[in-house]
Structure formats: C-alpha cells, structure tokens
Amino acid sequence: MFKLLQDYSAQRRAGLDPVFARDRLPEVSGIECWQDALSVTGPLPVQEARTVR
To answer: pLDDT tens for residues 14-23?
Structure first.
C-alpha cells in the first residue's frame, strides 16, 4: 500500500496525471485488476496535418 502512495506522489511531483499500472510497480503482487500503462492511458493521439490553400 505504501509503495502505491509513494509512486502516486512521485508521479504528481513530476507533473503527471498518476496512472496505476503493474509495469510501474512489478514487485507488488496480488492485484488482479491492473493492466499495463498503455492499456490504461491508451495510445497518444496523432493529429493529421492540414493542407493550407
């Protein structure tokens, strides 16, 4: 539980929107609902270039 809080605090200090994912804390076990960070946050959106006429 304390490792989760420490990770949350570190993410906040870094200016991030905290994400709890098993790949951030591989030493923590017994949590069945975690996914990897990409599954939680999704891929970054890609903006299409617009042609200026």
So the answer is: 998 888 777 7
The SS3 call for residue 51 is coil
Cβ atoms of 25 and 5 closer than 8 Å: no
Q: What is the mean pLDDT of residues 24-40?
A: 71
DSSP strands (E only) in 1-53: none
Instruction: Give the up-direction half-sphere exposure of residue 46: CA atoms within 13 A in the CB hemisphere.
Output: 3
Tokens coding 19: 């994400």
Q: Could you tell me which residues come within 8 angstroms of residue 37 by beta carbon, excluding any fewer than 6 positions away?
A: 19, 21, 23, 24
